[in-house]
Amino acid sequence: MEKFKNCQSCGMPMSRDPENGGTELDGSKSNKYCSYCYQSGQFTSPDINTPQEMQSFCIKKMKEQGMPKFIAWIFTRGIPKLERWKN
After folding, report:
1. pLDDT for 34-76, tens place per residue?
2. Helix or strand or coil: residue 63?
3. Which helix (H) or strand (E) holds 39?
């Protein structure tokens, strides 16, 4: 199974995830999604249904941590190309 370098939902580097990945339904680690996006085989934010909604959410979180909006936008502009959003 492929291990991704970045979460395939939000784009965060997996190395920045304090739990080293989300969890599948059976409790095993997800190689695809971070623990902020994915727990027990389900996405943690059912209200986020589009890559644009995920971008807005991530930009807001990064701004709360003191990052300038423009830099946050640069970090999130690849979200629509991630596995979760390809369909």
Report:
1. 999 999 999 999 899 999 999 999 999 999 999 999 999 999 9
2. helix
3. strand 38-39
**CA-to-CA distance for 75 and 79, rounded, in angstroms?**
9
Tracing tokens 């190309």 back to the chain, one arrives at 81
Long-range contacts of 29-36 (CB under 8 A, 24+ apart): 31/1, 31/2, 31/3, 31/4, 32/2, 32/4, 32/7, 32/8, 32/83, 33/7, 33/8, 33/9, 33/84, 34/7, 34/9, 34/10, 36/7, 36/10, 36/12
Kindly list the domain boundaries of the chain, sorted by start residue: 14-85
Its pTM surpasses 0.85: yes
